[in-house]
Write a structure and sequence with these properties.
The complex is a heterodimer of chains A (155) and B (319).
Chain A: H1 3-27, E1 39-41, E2 48-50, H2 52-56, H3 65-68, H4 90-93, H5 125-140, H6 149-152
Antiparallel strand pairs in A: 1-2
Chain B: H1 21-43, H2 45-68, H3 79-90, H4 97-110, H5 125-136, H6 143-146, H7 159-166, H8 176-180, H9 193-206, H10 211-231, H11 239-244, H12 248-255, H13 266-286, H14 293-307
Classes of the chains: A mainly alpha (155), B mainly alpha (319).
Chain lengths: 155, 319
């Protein structure tokens, strides 16, 4: 190949691949699926990779949504039409750190302020996860049963 | 007997045998293609975007630095495109565009052109780009975190992370055959072991890379991993696992044998390869990083000038 042809090839590669690259990034932005496959929780004790799909799948733990999402609701509850279930992520209600405000705003989507007991705090996120994950695994004796931090906090 | 000619050198003009840097660069890219295509097939258009953008931007950065430093435009030799491709092969498919842009800039400008361009770089430019980015934005290289939305039908845990944190109990779901066939998460072009081995064999057969470096690197990884495994088989994964996971194979065939950052003589090549292999497993098993290949090769790049001191004496040299 002559130097001119080599240069032409390099220019063509740069232009063609720039177009392909920009189009791929623009047309296929990173999307989060409606139902998560895995979730990475970050904490000071180490990241926790939670396999949501395995907990849901029949070949896995075969859990129903409401087994974990205890404010699981159907139709009409939040102004969403149809039979689509309304599932809220744990972090929506369970704060990472307790704030002066006793309840997160999201509580008020379902409850009236006078319904709520001011002395009761919403469980902190860390405690909620620990209670739910450990409680379920110990009860069913499947998966990480022992109370060892690095069963879950591994990354 | 006296007429037996061992070497005939004719006078000029000479005929060029057709070899060139561009042939070497593009053939290396072709050798890497099977692994890259499998990566794109697995991770879809986002992976195609990362690979395309990386090659294109590496060429553009090289052109820009050529213009800024008023040197001859060198993008024709294909080395920048090769740097872009190899860099993309190490990245996860979900890498944002700015990470690709920054990484290719660091690789081409800081890794290569600051040292005077091709042949002058003491470190592998691809690994310079990768290492700086990995230290700066570590979370973007945590394959477990960045690939949470992919489900490819096999265990979607980064094998080296599972081995590091859970020991051999955490890697039971990985088979050697599966790892060779690309059934593991990781960089776009670093998972399909069989493709990387075929590409490497092609490069060795064509004389583009030195088998001494590749094989000694793999031997270094194998022996060190074997010793760790024999010492504690519950804690440390076996040698085949280390050979076929992470960046081992891409490191052996595409990163370690880079021309200007690796030795040229037989013994130094063996020292370089084995040293990088040993360091890889040491970092993986007792270091803080999940994969040790990039830093192990960079470390041996640093040792390379000392390795090169081991060379035959010049004929007739006295003293």
């Amino acid at each position: 190949m002559t130097p001119q042809k080599e240069l032409k090839l390099a220019y063509s590669l740069a232009v063609a691949l720039l177009i392909v690259g920009v189009l791929s990034f623009a047309a296929f932005p990173a999307k989060t699926p409606d139902e998560p496959i895995r979730i990475m929780y970050k904490s000071v004790a180490g990241k926790v990779l939670f396999d949501h799909k395995t907990h849901r799948a029949d070949s896995g733990y075969s859990l129903a949504c409401e087994d974990c999402h205890h404010h699981f609701e159907f139709e009409g509850s939040s102004g969403i039409d149809g039979e689509e279930p309304v599932v809220q992520a744990c972090a929506v209600c369970h704060p990472f750190k307790p704030k002066e405000q006793a309840y997160p705003e999201s509580c008020m989507e379902c409850h009236d302020e006078e319904d709520l007991d001011e002395d009761v705090e919403v469980t902190k996120r860390t405690d909620a996860f620990h209670d739910q994950c450990e409680g379920c695994h110990q009860e069913t004796e499947i998966g990480p049963v022992e109370e060892r931090c690095n069963w879950c906090h591994v990354m | 007997m006296l007429n037996h000619n061992k070497l005939i050198v004719s006078h000029a003009p000479f005929w060029h045998n057709g070899s060139s840097i561009s042939v070497r660069s593009y053939h290396t890219m072709i050798a890497a293609l099977p692994a890259v295509l499998i990566g794109i097939f697995q991770y879809g258009p986002r992976a195609l975007g990362v690979v395309s953008l990386s090659i294109s931007l590496a060429i553009i950065w090289e052109l820009a630095i050529n213009k800024v430093t008023r040197r001859t435009v060198s993008i024709g030799d294909g080395n920048a495109a090769l740097i872009g491709l190899l860099f993309a092969m190490l990245l996860p498919a979900t890498s944002p565009w700015w990470l690709v842009a920054t990484g290719t800039f660091v690789a081409v400008v800081i890794g290569k052109h600051i040292y005077g361009g091709i042949g002058g770089n003491p470190f592998n430019p691809v690994l310079i780009g990768f290492a700086i980015l990995m230290v700066a934005w570590r979370d973007f290289f945590d394959f477990n975190e960045v690939l949470v939305n992919y489900d490819l039908g096999f265990a979607m845990v980064y094998p080296l992370a599972a081995a590091k944190h859970l020991g051999t109990a955490g890697i039971e779901s990985f088979s050697t055959a599966g790892l060779l066939l690309g059934q593991q998460t990781g960089g776009i072009g670093s998972n399909f072991g069989l493709g990387l081995i075929l590409g490497g064999m092609y490069l060795i057969a064509r004389g583009f890379i030195r088998w001494e470096i590749s094989l000694s690197f793999l031997a270094g990884v194998f022996i060190t991993a074997l010793l760790f495994h024999i010492n504690n088989s519950e804690l440390y994964a076996g040698p085949f696992f280390h050979l076929f996971t992470g960046y081992t194979l891409i490191g052996a065939f595409f990163l370690a044998p880079e021309d200007s950052s690796s030795p040229v003589n037989f013994i130094p090549m063996l020292i370089f390869g084995v040293g990088a292999g040993i360091m890889t497993v040491l970092i993986r098993n007792i270091g803080s990083f999940v994969d040790g290949v990039p830093f192990a090769i960079l470390l041996m790049n640093l040792v390379n000038p000392i390795c090169d001191k081991i060379r035959p004496k010049a004929l007739g040299k006295v003293g």
